Amino acid sequence: HTQPTHPTHDIMSLRTVLARTALFSRYSCSTSAAALPAAQTLSSSPVFNNVHAREYGIALGSRHQRTSKKEAVVVLGTGWAAYRFMQSVDYSRFDVKVVSPRNHFLFTPLLCSTAVGTLPFRSIMEPIRTASKPLRYFQAKAMNVDTDQKVVHCVGELNQEEFDLSYDRLVIACGARNATFGVPGVSENALFMKQLDHARQVRNRIIACFETASMPTCT
């Protein structure tokens, strides 16, 4: 589905929404950082590996090499709590790295509005790298945390390559999953409303139902 580009449809940006609501602090620890397919990819070419690895902070060996004298902070998740932390942390003291399969922050209270077309999808999401320029983001999953060595073992979401991130401080802000209350078949058949992809699925399902009903063979 193509979003309309007429100015009247661009109701408000995410920053405007956040500025006009008091929900940010209230929900600061409530939202999940579950996986979503993302559009950004990193090249695996030798040129990228040799030239740009340091810029993106990617560990080409077994462990990420620390290049700053600042305290290393690793943040797991890109939900409400993580995004609030990224905006308020003192970057002059901390070297912040963010790990999450989802490369954007999502304003979940307005998620239902995107499913029915009241708001465009882009108006309730904010790329995580815009939270603050000094931070470094990795689209990956944290598979294990070695608290003795202070290392997070990660797997890239796109290339499935393993890498490690060392830390001095660890922020775990992964959020929570949808509760099915043990009802059989819910996970396999229900349409949830937690991620941007869920809103798209609901919207496409509604459109498909209307289009099916309009067929001459449908009674």
β content, as a range? 15-25%
Distance between the termini: 27 Å
Listing every helix as H and every strand as E from the N terminus to the C terminus, the arrangement reads HHHHEHEEHEEEEEHH
Q: What's the main sheet like?
A: 6 strands, mixed
Enumerate the spans where pLDDT stays under 50 for 5 or more consecutive residues: 1-64
Q: What's the pLDDT, averaged over the residues?
A: 76
Q: What's the gyration radius in Å?
A: 20 Å
Number of strands: 8
Helical residue percent? 25-40%
Describe the structure.
With 219 residues, the chain is α/β, with parallel strands linked by helices. 26% of the residues lie in helices and 21% in strands. The chain has helices spanning 14-19, 23-26, 46-51, 53-56, 80-88, 111-115, 186-189, 196-213; strands spanning 71-76, 94-100, 104-106, 125-127, 136-146, 151-156, 162-166, 169-172. The strands form two sheets. A six-stranded mixed sheet has the order 7-6-5-2-1-8, with no helix packed on it. A two-stranded antiparallel sheet has the order 3-4. The two termini are 27 Å apart.
